[in-house]
Amino acid sequence: MRHTKGPWKVYDYRDLNDAIWIGVDNPHFGKLAHAEVRYVCDEAKNIGDIEANAQLIASAPELLEVCKAVIPALISGKLDDRVRAQKLVNEVVTKAQGVSHE
User: Fold this and answer.
1) pTM of the entire structure?
2) Domain definitions of the chain by residue range
């Protein structure tokens, strides 16, 4: 499976077209959008949900990489490996939920 290499970022363009874009920073072309999250009717206009959905989508490449990295730690059964794996999972889940510690 192929996908655009991360990190993906959330770009808020609600002031221009009521959309939040998910994309990458390209050194040659600037911000490149790969997906767009927007509301399509008044019932779906909960901005908090739209922002959360965009953050979750933008976290997909990192979530995939952490899942792949954690599998060997779970198989090994070693406590140190499992502790490192748990830390990686906690960090990427926190980011996917839109909580930043930067």
Assistant:
1) 0.69
2) 1-55, 59-102
